[in-house]
Design goal:
Length: 210
């Protein structure tokens, strides 16, 4: 069992905004550059996760970026897509102040809503029926192997190159069409409140899980 602490801002209310972009190198740099700025200037508050999924839209086989604040269902956009979701333990009205920078980057489509902590897995596409966790419902016979790595912060040039190579390979090789990349930018306030040598938890200085 895990305790779910409520913040003073949100109480039991969680809000999300989902923004979808075409996964072109210039969009990757702009979208993740805005997310990196929130790390560098300390503006990502306690209780907020910025979550992204990059891959082919399973409805069309086209590459996309889904940048999240919190997400419900995979949208059928006809592009390589990057979804970015911004999820926060706060009402949607409070969340909007943090997502304006992403709206300014001309997403293809957006989605938003409110709920409780129990809705978060569905918004983030990590519930039992999601594309990320039950890929075989969308593409027959896929594997679901993950290779996570922690990194200090976004390297925008390397990230754009990785996305371009991932999507090119997925398009050219149908056996890997279900491949996707995740970039998870968590609120790190509690992790960094302790020194790196004060516990057995490694890599406290890193800000991203990819």
């Amino acid at each position: 069992m895990h305790d779910i602490p409520d913040t003073e801002v949100g109480g039991k209310t969680w809000g999300y905004e989902l923004l979808v972009y075409e996964a072109r190198p210039e969009n990757v740099k702009r979208v993740f550059g805005a997310a990196r700025d929130m790390i560098r200037n300390g503006s990502q508050p306690v209780g907020m996760t910025i979550w992204s999924l990059i891959g082919l839209d399973p409805a069309t086989g086209k590459p996309s970026i889904f940048h999240y604040g919190e997400k419900k269902t995979l949208l059928a956009v006809k592009k390589h897509i990057d979804i970015i979701a911004v999820i926060h333990n706060a009402p949607l009205a409070h969340l909007r102040a943090y997502t304006l920078r992403f709206h300014a980057l001309s997403p293809i489509t957006t989605e938003s809503g409110e709920g409780t902590f129990l809705d978060v897995p569905r918004w983030m596409l990590i519930d039992a029926n999601s594309f990320a966790c039950d890929t075989s419902r969308f593409i027959p016979m896929p594997g679901n192997i993950r290779v996570p790595v922690d990194v200090k912060e976004h390297n925008l040039d390397a990230l754009a190159e990785m996305v371009d190579e991932l999507l090119r390979f997925a398009v050219d090789n149908s056996d890997f069409a279900a491949s996707f990349a995740l970039v998870e930018q968590y609120s790190m306030h509690a992790v960094k409140a302790k020194g790196e040598t004060d516990s057995a938890i490694p890599w406290r200085e890193h800000d991203l899980l990819m």
